[in-house]
Amino acid sequence: MALERLQKIKYHLIISDFRLPHIHGLKLIQTAQKENRKCRFLLISASTPETIDFDIKKTPILGFMMKRFSPLELRDLVTKHFDSLVK
C-alpha cells in the first residue's frame, strides 16, 4: 500500500514506523528516493538508532523518534522541516 502511494503522490515528508508489516523502513526510503529525490523522512521506532541495521547518516532522514514521544516533539520536528523549505 505504501509503495503504491509513493508512485502516485510526491510527498515532501513521510512519517513512518521503521518496521512496517509488509516492508522494511529502508526499502520504503529507497523506493521513495527513486520516485522523489526531495522527499525526507521522519522515522519512528521502538528500537534505538544504534540498533538499526543501516547508516542513518547516508539517508534523507530528518529525525528519528523513539516511540512514546510527545505530540509536541513531533510537531516541532515537522515544523522545523517545513520552515527549512521556505528559507
How is this structure best described in words?
- Helix 1 runs parallel beside helix 2 (about 25-35).
- The chain has about 90 residues and is of the alpha/beta class.
- Strand 1, helix 2 (about 25-35) and strand 2 (about 40-45) form a beta-alpha-beta unit.
- About 40% of the residues lie in helices and about 20% in strands.
- It has a single domain (about 5-85), classed as Response regulator (Rossmann fold, 3-Layer(aba) Sandwich), CATH 3.40.50.
- The mean pLDDT is about 80.
- The protein is built from 3 helices and 3 strands; from the N terminus they run H-E-H-E-E-H.
Named CATH architecture: 3-Layer(aba) Sandwich
Question: How many structural domains can be distinguished in the coordinates?
Answer: 1
What proportion strand? 15-25%
In terms of per-residue confidence, which ranges show pLDDT below 50 for 5 or more consecutive residues? none
Write the layout of secondary structure elements.
Elements: H1 2-8, E1 13-17, H2 25-35, E2 40-45, E3 61-66, H3 71-86
Parallel strand pairs: 1-2, 2-3
Helix pairs in contact: 1-2
